[in-house]
């Protein structure tokens, strides 16, 4: 789980920094659902261990008073080269052994690492941005669609599912929930602030990462 604090105008004393940006996990904050759609105003953060943890992180990052412009970016699964989520998936997919996790129907909130960095930079530089931003791509995908797109980017089919019992045995119950149950998260406010995505579509994002 990533926990980022970025302040601008670093030459100034910390007590006078005019803004703060932090990042937490959207996939842990919003309750898993096959049908619900979540934007930045949707409730969450109070239904299990990870959601409560995210709530505590956001509370710890919040500064008292109104003199500081504050932004929280709730990121999806970050996709990029050199490790992270993709690093654990590449080998089986390159061998043609990849596929959806569990049923594959669960949503998979994702974002290219370049866009996560872009949203954080946008939040720091644009004075009109404040509050919560969902750091996810505007095009949603299910886990099965993600598996198909990754297989296509690597030139392989992705049809071998990973049973939920194996996921639970390997990762434990709490972590397995984050893989087996997803959420459809929409970056409504992120888009409304004017941020322009470099990788809004999953297929193009994955092709850039595995190239």
Automatic annotation (TrEMBL):
Leader sequence residues:
none
Per the record, the domain of life is Eukaryota
DUF1731 domain location:
162-209
State what protein this is by name. Answer: Short chain dehydrogenase/reductase family 39U member 1
Source organism per entry reads Macaca nemestrina
């Amino acid at each position: 789980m990533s926990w980022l604090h970025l302040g601008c105008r670093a030459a100034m004393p910390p007590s006078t920094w005019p803004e703060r940006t932090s990042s937490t996990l959207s996939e842990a904050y919003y309750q898993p659902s096959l049908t619900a759609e979540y934007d930045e105003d949707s409730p969450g953060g109070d239904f299990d261990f990870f959601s409560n943890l995210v709530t505590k992180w956001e509370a710890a990052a919040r500064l008292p008073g109104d003199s500081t412009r504050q932004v929280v970016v709730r990121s999806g699964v970050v996709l990029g080269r050199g490790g992270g989520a993709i690093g654990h998936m590449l080998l089986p997919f390159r061998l043609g052994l990849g596929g959806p996790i569990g049923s594959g129907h669960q949503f998979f909130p994702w974002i290219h690492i370049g866009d996560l960095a872009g949203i954080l930079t946008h939040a720091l530089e644009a004075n009109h941005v404040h509050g919560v931003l969902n750091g996810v791509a505007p095009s949603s995908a299910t886990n099965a669609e993600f598996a198909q797109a990754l297989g296509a980017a690597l030139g392989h089919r992705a049809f071998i599912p990973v049973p939920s019992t194996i996921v639970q045995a390997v990762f434990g119950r709490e972590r397995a929930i984050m893989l087996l149950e997803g959420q459809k998260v929409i970056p409504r406010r992120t888009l409304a602030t004017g941020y322009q995505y470099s990788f809004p579509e999953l297929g193009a994002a994955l092709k850039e990462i595995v190239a």
